[in-house]
């Protein structure tokens, strides 16, 4: 019976490690929510607190394995910062290319938003950085990496990209054809972010790309970010009544066909890039 839990090397199988991580994370989130309620501040656990809880769950899991937390892709230094900034630039370019493609197809035009300057743009980046850390820690961190070790990169990619898309189903605007296009695009973005980790063995590039994508889409260009509409961008898109599968509508560019094309091209590009720190187990990715 132990063969279901322990592999031939006497190590707990990756599937059980991943399950344990998510059980631990849910317990920590529940405890945090209870603590906030007890303090008279009943609210949903925010992105920065979620990131801290995800990091704590990851730390406990790697310590049980006798590994280091830095091995998950958190290695401080200039190289990490450079990769993160490169990711931010990549995310901005992907969303900008998508927006320009939609605009070229007469999907909308931009108008300058009054009162939005450099200060507001920087303030918009802060919570989105928390979102990037929070989601990348669970989606490209410990669970993803252990699945890649145990079952290979494609299994890890497909499972975590699907889960990444699934957790967005509760977002506003997830209905009808919008839900189908948004799920496809978010799943593709999950695969893209997975390749960012596989090609660098660091979370810097996926965190940066995640931040740049969301910030450019909402804080800069004024579109919805995965259904959220409370971010005022430096520019406001004025839609021309074209179908939502073309523009993404209120959900954002992530629910559009042009985003599928641009994201697919980005995946092809990073798939062909061999990276700088690839190890043998990821060379088939």
Write the layout of secondary structure elements.
Elements: H1 14-38, H2 47-65, H3 78-104, E1 108-112, H4 118-139, H5 142-151, H6 153-166, H7 176-200, H8 204-220, E2 235-239, H9 244-247, H10 257-272
Antiparallel strand pairs: 1-2
Give an overview of the whole structure.
There is one protein chain. By secondary structure, this protein is mainly alpha-helical. It has one domain. It is 63% helix and 4% strand. It contains ten helices and two strands. The chain has a two-stranded antiparallel ribbon. Helix 3 runs parallel beside helix 8 and helix 4 packs across helix 8. The longest helix is centred in the N-terminal third of the chain and has 27 residues. The radius of gyration is 19 Å and the shape is globular. The relative contact order is 0.15. The C terminus is likely disordered.
């Amino acid at each position: 019976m132990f063969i279901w839990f322990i592999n031939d090397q006497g190590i707990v199988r990756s599937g059980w490690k991943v399950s344990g991580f998510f059980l631990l994370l849910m317990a920590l989130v529940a405890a945090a929510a209870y603590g906030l309620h007890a303090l008279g501040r009943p609210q949903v656990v925010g992105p920065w607190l979620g990131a801290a809880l995800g990091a704590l769950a990851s730390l406990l899991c790697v310590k049980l394995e006798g590994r280091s937390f830095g091995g998950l892709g958190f290695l401080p230094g200039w190289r990490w910062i450079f990769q993160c900034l490169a990711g931010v630039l990549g995310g901005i370019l992907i969303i900008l290319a998508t927006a320009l493609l939609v605009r070229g197809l007469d999907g909308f035009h931009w108008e300058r938003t009054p009162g939005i300057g450099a200060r507001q743009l920087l303030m918009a980046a802060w919570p989105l950085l928390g979102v990037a850390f929070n989601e990348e820690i669970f989606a490209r961190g410990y669970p993803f990496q252990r699945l890649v070790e145990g079952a290979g990169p494609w299994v890890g990619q497909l499972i975590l990209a699907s889960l990444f898309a699934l957790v967005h189903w509760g977002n506003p605007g997830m209905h009808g054809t919008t839900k189908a296009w948004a799920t496809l695009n978010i799943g593709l973005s999950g695969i893209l972010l997975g390749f960012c980790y596989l090609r660098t063995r660091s979370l810097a590039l996926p965190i940066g790309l995640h931040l740049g994508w969301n910030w450019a889409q909402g804080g800069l260009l004024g579109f919805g970010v995965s259904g959220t509409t409370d971010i005022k961008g430096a520019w406001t898109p004025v839609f021309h009544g074209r179908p939502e599968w073309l523009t993404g509508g209120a959900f954002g560019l992530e629910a559009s066909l042009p985003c599928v094309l641009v994201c697919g091209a980005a995946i092809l590009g990073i798939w062909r890039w061999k990276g700088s720190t690839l190890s043998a187990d990821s060379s088939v990715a």
